[in-house]
Design brief:
It holds the Pfam family Peptidase_S55. The chain is of the alpha+beta class. It is built from 6 helices and 23 strands. The chain is elongated.
Length: about 325
């Protein structure tokens, strides 16, 4: 009987080990970052970024996708420019599912709409972590939604670059502030973008990891997080990452709320800024999570996702 019980216990322990990979993942150490990054995603289509009134009285509407030029399928601005030859140009436009129409333009008119067309989406965010073993990074803490398309964009390739903060537009109640950044896409990219998930963007870090001055630290389990003092890592001047004091005021499941108590940060930014999403939060020397949102009417107050939840990439 004892032998049978020992065998059963060994079997249960083995099954627990096989079914609990997240426990192993959470035991890893990650490097907390905080750098502002420029995000660039190449799309497999050309779309209209602003409403355009054409000389014939028709409109190209924001979000329209140009599928064909003179009957030839296009998937980039380069092909659009290549195909707009001849005196009359016919564009096949798609808006939503199974809604298509054609528009006829002269060659000059087709060239004139070029400044209003895009084949990529871009933005600013904050780098959250780098895994020194797998060289995977995570950023933002939430999914990228293209503001024109109003949906997560399909993309064929993606890159992240270091961004330098040139100026701050301060937040005030009801008016979210933002970072004014310069991104040099001619520089070597920091990494690619493999996926745009509900919990952020993820990809492979391509830069020299040995040049990162911060060391890997342990991930804090959700049940270890406490109300009270913590620190926020983010960049508000140039590319320098600084530590600022915050207070965790609420913990609920895999999310937490916090208030900025650092007077230096409040005086410079007024609170959380657009572009701070992904900023790491630390407590007692461990990696807690990443900023995801601000409270518009209370800009000194923000929300964050725990790092253990962010590493799932998608909710269960």
């Amino acid at each position: 009987m004892k032998c049978r019980l020992r065998n059963l216990l060994a079997y249960l322990l083995l099954m627990f080990a096989l079914l609990s990979p997240s426990a192993v993942a959470e035991a890893k150490k990650l490097i907390p970052m905080g750098e502002s990054i420029g995000i660039q995603m190449e799309l497999p289509f050309v779309y209209v970024a602003h409403d355009v009134l054409l000389p014939n009285g028709q409109w190209l509407k924001k979000g329209d996708i140009i599928k064909e030029v003179n009957g030839k399928k296009i998937d980039s601005l380069e092909k659009f420019e290549e195909f707009i030859s001849g005196e009359e140009i016919t564009l096949t436009i798609e808006k939503g599912t199974n809604q298509s129409r054609t528009i006829k333009l002269t060659n000059d008119q087709a060239n004139n709409i070029l400044p209003f067309l895009k084949d990529e989406t871009d933005g600013i965010g904050t780098l959250t972590f780098i895994d020194p073993e797998s060289k995977e990074y995570g950023a933002l803490g939430h999914q990228i939604i293209d503001g024109v398309l109003n949906r997560p964009p399909e993309f064929t390739d993606g890159s992240i670059f270091l961004a330098s903060i040139e100026q701050i537009k301060k937040s005030s109640p009801g008016n979210p502030g933002y970072k004014i950044s310069v991104i040099n896409t001619d520089d070597i990219r920091l990494g690619n973008i493999d996926s745009n998930e509900l919990y952020g963007i993820f990809g492979h870090w391509e830069s020299d990891i040995n040049q990162i001055m911060r060391k890997p630290i342990e991930i804090m389990y959700d049940d270890e997080i406490q109300l009270g003092k913590a620190e926020l890592l983010t960049a508000i001047e140039g590319s320098k990452v600084e530590s600022f004091q915050i207070e965790i005021v609420k913990i609920e499941d895999n999310y937490l709320q916090f208030e900025i108590t650092d007077q230096n940060l409040l005086s410079k930014t007024g609170g959380i800024l657009q572009g701070m999403s992904g900023s790491p939060i630390l407590q007692n020397g461990k990696f807690v999570g990443a900023v995801t949102h601000m409270f518009v009417e209370q800009p000194a107050r923000g929300a964050a996702i725990t790092l253990s939840e962010m590493l799932k990439k998608k909710p269960d």
